[in-house]
Amino acid sequence: MSFLKKLAGQTAVYGLSSILGRLLNYLLVPLYTTAFAPDEYGVLTELYAYAAFLNVLYIYGLETAYFRFSKDGDTVFPIAFSSIFISSLLFSGVIWLASDSIALILEYPEKGACIRWLSLILTLDAIVAIPFAQLRKEGKAVKFAAFKISNIGANVLLNLFFIVFCPRFLAENPAHFLSAIYEPKLGVGYVFLSNLVANALYLMFFMSTWKKVRLQFDKMEWLRMMNYAWPVLIIGFTGVTSEMLSRIILKHRLPEGFYPEYSNLEIVGIFGACYKLSVFMTLAVQAFRYAFEPFFFNRAKDKNAPQVFSKVMNYFVILTSFSWLVLCLFMPYYAPIFLRQESYLIALDAVPWLLGGGMFLGVFYNLSLWYKLTDKTLYGAYMSLTGALSTLFLNWVLIPVYGYLGSAYATFFSYLLMVIISYVWGRKHYPVPYDLGSIMLYIIISLTGIIFCTYFEYDIFITICVILTFLLCVFILQKKDFIGR
């Protein structure tokens, strides 16, 4: 069990950093929903949705390729870094030059500066991807966490400075020198500016890396890495499509007047704010993924590796399905704390589906070891493409009928479809003896408990009984691990 303790320990560090970081970052949600109207928050939601796609393009699978080939020599790091560094400058240069035209196409004619800043944010995120991957490979989880938390903390402080402090201070001291650098009309633009300045801190954090790394290119080695990485790029693109498409297509596919009191852009902002509540599941999945990817590459050659991976999956499902249950049952209590305006609360019924979709995405990441270890990343691309197409189809069909709920349904069932396909194909190419019965039981108990408590309007007594029932089932099924064989 020492391997599980080590994995759990690293996951805990990554998770703690993610939770602390996201909690700091999450302080911005009440700030944004107080400072910005839903339509302006919709601009922020849509632009960051596009940024998620671009972030995948900027890294194009080389992060995973680095994990796969880093054991083969010292040239892998500089080649991967050099490739991303050069391509990022090219990508951002194109976006910078076309920023005003892009703003017009997106119907944000005065947001060209935001798009230029976003291009620089993407560049900085990309060039530190391989240095961060190196920290994960070397097991330096604490250093990784410290850099991430520092970045997010700086971002929060800058947001508070520009959005809260400056307007209030200058209202009382209009002649202060701050009036020369603060422009009230910039509004939501200060979100992007704060993110950019915070990301610039990465340049300082990795100073020791910059002193040692040299731009290096080896055609044959690069082609070997790209042959592995390009399907990962497709996986990343389609994964982001499944996650972000709803927030892009909702504005265009939602019939005008579907929600009589709100415009389509306002609904995008409201749905985007409620989508933020699924971040708690995202945190758990992200923390696990940070620790699990180097873990399974390192243990792949062990004769007991399949049994190890099965046990990891079992405990992963226990934790995520329990999180899904608890987050849904207590949502009426914590949601109003983060979503400050009443209008943002109308989309809370979508959150359980989004949380469930996040859980299935985590299961898919867990299953993904089979195609990464067998170098069959093209299969991963097929599955992710299937998920993206199903997301597009379901959004297209369901949004005109169910509104934002259609997008939530699409997220849930698309990720579930990807899990089913990956499990079936994985049994053929890299069999792992997953305890399918227990896994399905935990998920069914959570889903049943959520539906049951929703029907009884989250009665606290029933809520506690449902949670205790889940924990009792876990104890019965896992008692050998708890009390020894």
Could you walk me through the main structural features you see in this protein, from its secondary elements to its overall organization?
The protein is mainly alpha-helical. It is 81% helix and 0% strand. The chain is built from 22 helices and no strands. It has helices spanning 2-26, 28-35, 38-59, 62-69, 76-97, 99-105, 112-127, 129-137, 141-172, 189-205, 207-212, 219-253, 264-275, 279-299, 305-329, 331-338, 351-367, 369-373, 377-402, 404-429, 436-455, 460-483. Helix 4 runs antiparallel to helix 12, helix 5 runs antiparallel to helix 7 (112-127) and helix 9 (141-172) packs antiparallel against helix 10.
Q: Helices and strands in order, then pairings?
A:
Layout lengths: L1 H25 L1 H8 L2 H22 L2 H8 L6 H22 L1 H7 L6 H16 L1 H9 L3 H32 L16 H17 L1 H6 L6 H35 L10 H12 L3 H21 L5 H25 L1 H8 L12 H17 L1 H5 L3 H26 L1 H26 L6 H20 L4 H24 L2
Helix pairs in contact: 1-9, 1-14, 3-7, 3-12, 3-13, 4-5, 4-8, 4-12, 5-7, 6-7, 7-10, 9-10, 12-13, 12-19, 12-20, 14-15, 14-17, 15-17, 15-21, 15-22, 17-20, 19-20, 21-22
Order of helices and strands: HHHHHHHHHHHHHHHHHHHHHH
Number of strands: 0
Major sheet description: none
Our count of helices gives 22
Tertiary shape: globular
Cα gyration radius (Å):
23 Å
Q: Cα distance, first to last residue? A: 13 Å
Helix share of residues?
over 70%
Mean residue pLDDT: 83
> What structural class do helix, strand and pairing data support?
mainly alpha
**Poorly predicted ranges:** none
**Oligomeric state, counting identical vs distinct chains:** single chain
The proportion of strand residues reads under 5%
